[in-house]
Write a structure and sequence with these properties.
7-stranded mixed sheet; Rossmann fold; alpha/beta
C-alpha cells in the first residue's frame, strides 16, 4: 500500500493554517499538558543523542516546519538550514528567525526529497518526516542525503516506528486531529537497513518515551530516535 502525497500535503497545509505559532504543531499532541510533557521529554532525549557538534557545524533540518528544532540547535551550530514544503510554516519560521536574531537559521520551501545542495553538512536532523514518504520518495531522499553529508557526518532521526511490524494508515479520520491522516510506520529494522544502504550505521536507538509513559498511546507504533553515523 502507498499513501497519496497530495493527501499528506493537504493535511500539513491545513494544519499550518490553523496552528502556525503552536509549539505542538508538528508533534501532533492536542492536549496542552501532554504537549508540554512531550516537548520536554523529547528535547532532553534529542539533546542526549546530539552529543558535541564540531565547531561551526553545518546542520540541515529536513521537514523542519517553522523551525522548532532548528532554533533549539542554533546556539550550538555554525549554520542551520531548514527545508519544508509548507509555505506558511517557512514564512513563519523566517519571521521567527528575525524576531530572535537567529541569523544562522535559514529556510527553503521545498519537498525534502527534492532539495539539492552544493554544500556539505555535518549533521542532518530529520523529525517526523519519513513516515509521510512512500518508498520511492524515501529512496530519493536517502540518495540526496548521501550526496550532501560529509564523511563522518551524523543523521539524527526522530520518527514514528511500527511495532512489532510495519504499519500503515491510509486516509483515516482522526477525531483528535480533526483531519484525515495517512502515514507509513516502518519498523526499526527497515530504517536501519535503509540507512545502511547509503553507508550509515545505526550506533544508537531508543523509544522516545519510557515504557508505561502516557505518551505511548498506540500499540502499533512508537516514536523512536536513531543516531546514524557515516563511515
Amino acid at each position: 500500500m502507498s499513501i497519496d502525497p497530495a493527501d499528506v500535503k493537504r493535511f500539513w497545509d491545513e494544519r499550518a493554517a490553523r496552528h502556525a505559532d503552536d509549539p505542538g504543531l508538528t508533534n501532533l499532541e492536542e492536549d496542552p499538558e501532554l504537549r508540554a510533557l512531550k516537548i520536554a521529554l523529547e528535547e532532553a532525549r534529542v539533546d542526549a543523542y546530539l552529543g558535541a557538534l564540531p565547531p561551526g557545524a553545518a546542520v540541515l533540518d529536513l521537514g523542519g516546519g517553522n523551525g522548532h528544532w532548528a532554533f533549539k540547535l542554533a546556539p550550538r551550530a555554525g549554520s542551520i538550514h531548514v527545508v519544508d514544503y509548507c509555505e506558511p510554516l517557512v514564512v513563519r519560521g523566517r519571521a521567527r528567525a528575525a524576531e530572535l536574531g537567529a541569523g544562522n537559521v535559514t529556510f527553503s520551501c521545498a519537498a525534502a526529497q527534492d532539495f539539492e545542495s552544493a554544500r556539505s553538512f555535518d549533521l542532518i536532523f530529520i523529525s517526523g518526516l519519513l513516515l509521510y514518504l512512500n518508498d520511492g520518495e524515501l529512496q530519493q531522499l536517502l540518495q540526496r542525503i548521501a550526496g550532501y553529508t560529509r564523511p563522518g557526518g551524523v543523521v539524527i532521526l526522530r520518527d514514528g516506528t511500527g511495532v512489532p511490524a510495519h504499519y500503515e494508515i491510509a486516509k483515516r479520520w482522526s477525531e483528535a486531529l480533526g483531519a484525515s491522516y495517512a502515514a507509513i510506520y516502518r519498523t526499526r529494522e527497515e530504517y536501519i537497513a535503509a540507512f545502511a544502504g547509503i553507508g550509515f550505521a545505526c550506533v544508537r536507538d531508543d523509544d522516545m518515551f519510557e515504557p508505561g509513559c502516557v505518551l505511548n498511546k498506540f500499540p502499533e507504533t512508537r516514536l523512536r530516535i536513531y543516531r546514524f553515523e557515516r563511515a
